[in-house]
Amino acid sequence: MPRTTVVTRRATVADVPALVALTDEMRSVGARAERAVNPINTNDIAARLTDAIASPGISVLVASVDETPVGLAVCRAIHPDPLSDSRVLQVSHVVVARSHRRRGVGHALLAAAVEIADAEQLEHVGIELYPSVRDASRFYARLGFAPVTVQRVAPVGVLRRRLTGDTPMVRVDDLVRRRSRVRRPLPAQRAVRRTTEPID
Prior knowledge:
It is a single chain. The chain has about 200 residues and is of the alpha+beta class. It folds into 2 domains: about 5-155, Gcn5-related N-acetyltransferase (GNAT) (Aminopeptidase, 3-Layer(aba) Sandwich), CATH 3.40.630; about 155-195, no CATH class. The chain has helices at about 15-25, 30-35, 45-55, 105-120, 135-140, 155-165, 170-180, 185-195, and strands at about 5-10, 60-65, 70-80, 90-95, 125. Strand 4, helix 4 (about 105-120) and strand 5 (about 125) form a beta-alpha-beta unit. Helix 1 (about 15-25) crosses helix 3. The chain starts with 6 loop residues before the first strand and ends with a helix.
């Protein structure tokens, strides 16, 4: 399918209704953990997009074809590791309208992200995506993105139950005490016992 002319720019508050409509594309993400963090489940997505657009540390990008918004991406410079000095441009919530996929919209959004990274003198661009979206994973891999860390999400209640479980947790000193009770004689001790036992 031929590529169309895609224009990218920073979003304005006037773009919020169109961006909210684009986020509806994210409803297709189906894994349980992904649904838990999917912003489409928030009731105030329009207000959050408005706040992000107004934030000096966030760049909300919109891609348009014939002046119609067909793509969205959110960029921000972050420290991915609190113990590291490195900063990357983190790109998240990349959405392309189904009617305009495979037409260069994703490329255009990432090209705009690269320009932002250059302007902020950042050497790396990171991408956030849901593991279930395999086509997107292959797309980013072809562009040179490689996995660095894996973030897994678990509900607090489930994690607490799994950590405590139905069986009580065993402390290290309990294990030592149990082992000392069932400690068997050393081989040398067993040999001595055999030599001192009476012979019938």
